[in-house]
């Protein structure tokens, strides 16, 4: 009606303007009639889009209009139904309802009655009638529903609800649905059985907070309410419920269209136990790996100690005056010892990699110099087999890169060793190229190709697995442990690259090593041990050598003899402390594992004492080769570290550094005293 009032006001204003302030009655009447007609048209347009059946009558309850839904329900045309009395359409309706009423009055509200279609057939109906003013007329609006269709829809809804409920009850998963107000709508039977909620039974209308308290017996209600509030705010989440008797239930919460929530409960007891067992197995495996590492560290010491003596004595024997047969026997002994040390180093490297205790070092590396050394080493071997060895380096390879020279040489040595082992004729070629990456980074690519026996596709699948042999017959013929390539690939990946192979039986093999490195403008020279006396050693040094093993004492004595000077021997740490308190030494060579007092304890005691050798450099000599052993020695107060079997050059360098430091320190103290 507001729109009608607006039109009247507008039209009155127009009429007054046209008459110079007066109102033309005829003109006004026409304008008012136009406004009412516009209001009627707008109502008819609205009614035509309503899905319910609408009949509009005058105050005498004669039909003046019907919307398409009403015409369809009654099977009439607009011409046929207009003018009919509602008493004819609703013959059994109480006549008292056809009395005059004020606009806005609800004359009938969902009254059940009988309606007649235009063809005379009757049907059960539900009607609602309201009095209203439409345009300038008092009208009655009747909303008509086919009760049979309503009941059919209700039955269909009930059937669907029953089907859904039956389907939910067949699930192994418990399902509970809550409306937007947090009230339980329905829950299937597995909810009760899974969660043991039979007594008292859960029922629709239960609040989600009370339901959650039933799931978490013994938990403070305020804590449960906070959890529910958080889940309702997030509208999704997962909660693990541990029920009495060891049952484990997973509850998953998600949203539904009406603003409510659906909770699904699944018994994951078996899965949880499997996970627990897997976790226990993981912990046991880690403990076993730790025990393995400890065992390898111990075996490293036990194996390296006798190997130190074997290789050292064999080396000394090789330099003595021997006939040809004896020299050949010693060479065989040295070769066998080298193989044993190579195997031992491979096992230790693999163990450290698996334990995550092997670090990649960085130093300036002259790639061309490294390859020249490899060529000098392998060319005589391959010449004896009539196999040509060729090296080529692309101009793109920087002169110097920063990487791990030891690991790069280790991998290339292993690849050349394999190529030499499986190539009886033809050629072995090493090609090196580089590809620029971001900044000063480059990717170095080393391709080692041979014309050897080749490798089948099946064998390539296990080529890089530890302790795997591609063919037992080949292994018996050529030897090998199956560790070299496995370690090489792991080292390559630790250096940001990889190790791959392309091969076929009878067509040779190409192994490609790719590593990342940084290009530098100049190389710092690598530390190279001096095999003879240095300036710091020419005047002779006083050495306290602490070693409990008699064989190792003889080996060490043979190494120290060329240095001259004086060597004093101690069999354990306690004896070393007594000797250190009586006379000054330039260097203390300290074994680690000894009876009575080990080297670490002796060094700590020396550093904490007032002995005249409290500051004397201590060089650790140990067969332990696991990562962290060097750090342990330095933390105990030692100054340097050499591993067994002892390399004489490394020993001489360590003694030189220690002697130089000791003498410089004494000179400085003397200057301060003066």
Provide a compact summary of the structure.
With 674 residues, this protein is α+β, with helices and mostly antiparallel strands. Helices cover 46% and strands 22% of the residues.
Shape: elongated
Largest sheet: 7 strands, mixed
- CATH top level class name of the largest domain: Alpha Beta
Tell me the CATH superfamily of the largest domain. Answer: Histidine kinase-like ATPase, C-terminal domain
The total count of helices amounts to: 21
Structure report:
Helices cover 46% and strands 22% of the residues. Mean pLDDT is 77; it is low at 1-5, 17-23, 470-481 and 522-533. It has 21 helices and 22 strands. 26% of the residues are buried. The protein has five domains: 50-151, PAS domain (Beta-Lactamase, 2-Layer Sandwich), CATH 3.30.450.20; 172-267, 2-Layer Sandwich (Beta-Lactamase), CATH 3.30.450; 282-347, Orthogonal Bundle (Helix Hairpins); 363-520, 2-Layer Sandwich (Heat Shock Protein 90); 535-673, Response regulator (Rossmann fold, 3-Layer(aba) Sandwich). By secondary structure, it is α+β, with helices and mostly antiparallel strands.
Chain-wise SSE layout:
Blueprint: H1 2-18, H2 25-48, E1 53-57, E2 63-66, H3 68-74, H4 78-81, H5 86-89, E3 106-116, E4 122-134, E5 137-146, H6 147-170, E6 174-178, E7 184-187, H7 189-195, H8 208-215, H9 221-234, E8 237-242, E9 248-255, E10 261-267, H10 269-318, H11 324-354, E11 363-366, H12 367-384, E12 387-393, E13 400-403, H13 405-422, E14 426-436, E15 441-450, H14 457-461, H15 472-478, H16 484-494, E16 498-503, E17 509-520, E18 542-546, H17 550-560, E19 566-570, H18 573-582, E20 587-591, H19 599-608, E21 618-622, H20 629-635, E22 640-643, H21 648-673
Parallel strand pairs: 12-14, 18-19, 18-20, 20-21, 21-22
Antiparallel strand pairs: 1-2, 1-5, 3-4, 4-5, 6-7, 6-10, 8-9, 9-10, 11-13, 13-17, 14-15, 15-17, 16-17
